[in-house]
Amino acid sequence: MRPPAKLNISLVVFGPREDGYHDLHTVMGTINLYDDLHLKFADKPGIHLYCTGLECPANGDNLTYKAAELLARHVRLEPAVDIYLHKRIPAGGGLGGASSDAAACLLGLNRLWSLNLPQEELELIASQLGSDVPFFLNGPVALCTGRGEIIQKLPHRCKRTILLIIPDIHISTAQVYRNYTFDENKVNEDIRRARYFLCRGDLDGLLIQGINSLTEVTMSLSEALQNLRHRLNDMGIAEVHMTGSGSCLFAVSESMGEITAWELEIKRQNIAQPLQVSFYDHDEIFLENHHADF
Q1: What angle do CA 35, 36, 37 make, to 5 degrees?
Q2: Where in the chain is the domain with CATH 3.30.70.890?
Q3: Radius of gyration (C-alpha) of the chain in whole angstroms
Q4: Fewer CB atoms < 10 Å away: N or C end of the chain?
Q5: Tell me: the pLDDT tens digits for 266-291?
């Protein structure tokens, strides 16, 4: 299984709710950066998680482990499963890697254990794991509202190649939201713009708007990320946007030559890891290639 990363094509954040979460209006799309997840029956009882690649916890703190644990408890099953997770999606980058791994684990175990749980039931379980997890059960592009658990799949797609910029900076999502200040006028304007492009079915147009309510608060919390954005702008990479709560940035251009030139210059200056990525186009590719082959 290949759980994919996501980019927030737009992200509008409202004020805090009574439950401590924030209401969101976000359009997300999966991209061709992915982890590897393999599931198989274990010889002994328990959930056994083995991690390779980028650093991640191989214990109960891992969201993939929690997904297996929660699903087993939900169906009253004593688990005996080996989970092999190879990480390529960096943590703390706003790319949703942990959520994607958890969603893939739910889908894979639903088949491995022959549970045949319907999509709606899996989504209820997923919503207990995190706001982004239900999205990854749907994909490849969706509008997510509520605290992120209300999913409306979209028929529209982004066609542009993107330069993803991955810095060696970890951002705490919880800290970003704790410091976020709701500005009603700005949020209303961002919602108006987002709905305009959604009504036109123009997700490429929405993407280049760079609508993200969390950008400024994240930059204020990380001087290193703020400095990186300034350096990228000084290099002539204009309109550098942030995905999720950061720290990953991205830039969009109509010219593949310009994207490649930016990539080479970032590599030359060794200020971050640049990676050309694109959005997944078809439901069938997303579901079959990325969630069915365990």
Answers
A1: 120
A2: 162-277
A3: 19
A4: C
A5: 999 999 999 999 998 765 444 544 44
